[in-house]
């Protein structure tokens, strides 16, 4: 009894003594990594608002004395960029909807039924995200060329949808796993068909997960560079290759304009991720988001 | 409805038809087709092809393959180890009771689109007006010199992926029971000893998976390298992804591109076997 009594007395003291030092070390690590991690973001934003003459001075002014919105207004006036934006929106939205549809059915099959080949298929789906996309691209180009899809939105949408499936399927399987099977059994006893049970019970219950999966798919399509660069006609290209064509081809790059464009392109993705925060860890550990 | 007449298994397979069709069309068929094409002499733009057996592989192994393998390994190791170390340090720091909003702040580099990451660092590394040269008082062409280009590319990729490592490792740290550390510190273990004997063993599984996944992704990474250097200068940053892309879409040489892809796949399959074993364990 005395032994157990002395312990609680000694215990609070040890953490109290080490806390200030380890706290300081933690803050120091955060400060160093914070500079590496956040200074570039600061530089992106600052450059986007810095007048050209200051942005192209050397050494650059770390705290510009003047702020301008010129780069953003020039962006808004650029019809070509607006076209890329429309393409990005179309491709990303359709990809998101299609991904959710396809992956929800597949995830439901993985979650609620037991059948031969299920486990190996699940692993295959997971592994498929690890195949080199640059290699797939080479022969996909030929496939789309032969089917006449090359250059169209369809080529991009089908590719992006497929590449988001592993993550979306695993994410939604996790969500369907939390929907009690007794609900479905009850529906079956009441005479509902399997389709009806799926559509009126399981899918509505998984709605937040469906939104999250859709946003992941949206972001994947929005961010892609190499497929959009290769599989589409110039007038169907999305923003990432569009920005490369617009800004990096010239002799002198308009850096502040490019930073302003980068800022704008990042906004929808940042907004999506703020919404997705709580799905992040589960989604990440299930597989990949960005490859 | 018809749902009734099917068995559970048949219904499940029916649900998977759209997904499996997409996998077959967009991943499986192109992959198999690529592996077959590696044995032919074929152009991307002209129809027709002729069987050449192992000639494409012979050409590659006689030269181009080795520098590309070396570059890929250097890039992959650098761009995996650095974010791992930074992410681990950050996860440990954030797990010791720092405010939670910091975690969200650090996600920014990972969240912004890859091509924006490349633009941003192109600007930072710019030889004439870049802020890095501004801070150092130099005019180094970081991406234009064979000696520094790879390092610059690795730094960029590290910046883009350390937050992912942080999130993964933080998730692992948060599943560690606090009592373990308290017990160890009662027994007189210092911070370093506790990290070695409590944290590291607890984190082995998730750290292993995170490292391996990042390694596999970097092994096939394309965007950052392509936008920053295009594989140059003088091939100094030419990895498998860039080499396959260039051979196919700039050289129009489908045979050699897919043969190189075949060798690349072979190496990836070894890594994937590791991954699936770890994932199952």
TrEMBL record, chain A:
Subcellular location(s) of the protein: Cell membrane
Domain of life assignment:
Bacteria
What membrane topology does the annotation report for this chain? Answer: Multi-pass membrane protein
Q: What is its main location?
A: membrane
Keyword list (alphabetical) reads: Cell membrane, Membrane, Transmembrane, Transmembrane helix, Transport
A Pfam family found in this protein is BPD_transp_1
Which CDD domains does the record match to this protein? TM_PBP2
Domain ABC transmembrane type-1, which positions?
Answer: 85-276
Q: What family does this chain come from, according to its entry?
A: Belongs to the binding-protein-dependent transport system permease family.
- Protein name from the UniProt record: Carbohydrate ABC transporter permease
UniProtKB/TrEMBL annotation, chain B:
Asked whether the keyword Transmembrane is assigned, the reply is yes
Gene3D superfamilies for this protein: MetI-like
Show the SUPFAM superfamilies listed in the entry: MetI-like
> Locate the ABC transmembrane type-1 domain: which residues?
69-275
User: Which keywords belong to this entry?
Assistant: Cell membrane, Membrane, Transmembrane, Transmembrane helix, Transport
Query: Which top-rank group of organisms is this from?
Result: Bacteria
Annotated family: Belongs to the binding-protein-dependent transport system permease family.
Q: Could you tell me what this protein is called?
A: Sugar ABC transporter permease
């Amino acid at each position: 009894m005395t032994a157990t009594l002395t312990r609680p007395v000694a215990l609070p003291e040890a953490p109290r003594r080490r806390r200030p030092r380890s706290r300081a070390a933690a803050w120091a690590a955060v400060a160093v990594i914070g500079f590496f991690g956040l200074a570039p973001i600061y530089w992106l934003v600052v450059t986007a608002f810095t007048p050209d003459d200051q942005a192209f001075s050397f050494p650059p002014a770390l705290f510009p004395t003047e702020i301008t919105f010129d780069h953003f207004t020039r962006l808004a006036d650029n019809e070509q960029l607006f076209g890329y934006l429309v393409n990005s929106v179309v491709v990303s939205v359709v990809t998101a909807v299609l991904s959710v549809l396809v992956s929800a059915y597949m995830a439901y099959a993985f979650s609620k039924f037991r059948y031969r080949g299920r486990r190996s298929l699940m692993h295959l789906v997971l592994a498929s995200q690890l195949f080199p996309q640059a290699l797939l691209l080479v022969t996909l180009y030929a496939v789309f060329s032969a089917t006449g899809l090359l250059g169209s939105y369809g080529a991009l949408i089908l590719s992006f949808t497929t590449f988001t499936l592993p993550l979306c399927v695993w994410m939604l399987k996790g969500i369907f796993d939390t929907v009690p099977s007794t609900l479905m059994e009850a529906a079956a006893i009441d005479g509902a068909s399997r389709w009806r049970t799926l559509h009126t019970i399981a899918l509505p219950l998984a709605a937040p997960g469906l939104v999250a999966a859709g946003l992941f798919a949206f972001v994947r399509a929005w961010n892609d560079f190499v497929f959009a660069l290769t599989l589409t006609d110039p007038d169907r290209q999305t923003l990432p290759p569009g920005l490369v064509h617009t800004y990096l081809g010239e002799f002198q790059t308009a850096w502040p304009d490019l930073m302003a464009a980068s800022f704008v392109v990042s906004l929808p993705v940042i907004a999506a991720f703020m919404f997705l925060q709580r799905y992040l860890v589960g989604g990440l550990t299930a597989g990949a988001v960005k490859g | 409805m018809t749902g009734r007449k099917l068995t559970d298994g048949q219904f499940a397979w029916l649900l998977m038809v759209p997904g499996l069709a997409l996998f077959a069309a967009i991943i499986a068929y192109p992959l198999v087709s690529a592996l077959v094409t590696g044995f032919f002499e074929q152009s991307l733009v002209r129809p027709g092809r002729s069987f050449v057996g192992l000639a494409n592989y012979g050409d590659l192994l006689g030269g181009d393959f080795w520098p590309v393998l070396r570059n890929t390994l250097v890039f992959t190791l650098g761009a995996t180890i650095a974010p791992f170390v930074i992410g681990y340090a950050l996860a440990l720091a954030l797990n010791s009771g720092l405010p939670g909003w910091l975690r969200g702040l650090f996600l920014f580099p990972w969240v912004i689109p890859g091509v924006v990451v490349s633009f941003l660092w192109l600007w930072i590394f710019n030889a004439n007006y870049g802020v890095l040269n501004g801070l150092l008082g130099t005019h180094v062409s970081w991406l234009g010199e064979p000696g520094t280009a790879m390092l610059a590319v690795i730094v960029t990729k590290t910046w883009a992926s350390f937050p992912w490592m942080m999130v993964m490792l933080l998730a692992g740290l948060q599943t560690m029971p606090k009592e373990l550390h308290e017990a160890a510190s009662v027994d007189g273990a210092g911070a370093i000893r506790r990290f070695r004997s409590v944290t590291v063993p607890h984190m082995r599984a998730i750290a292993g998976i995170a490292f391996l996944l990042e390694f596999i992704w970097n092994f096939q990474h394309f965007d950052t390298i392509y936008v920053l250097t295009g594989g140059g200068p003088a091939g100094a940053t030419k990895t498998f992804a860039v080499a396959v892309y260039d051979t196919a879409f700039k050289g129009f040489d489908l045979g050699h591109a897919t043969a190189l892809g075949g060798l690349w796949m072979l190496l990836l399959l070894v890594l994937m076997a590791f991954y699936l074993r770890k994932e199952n364990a």
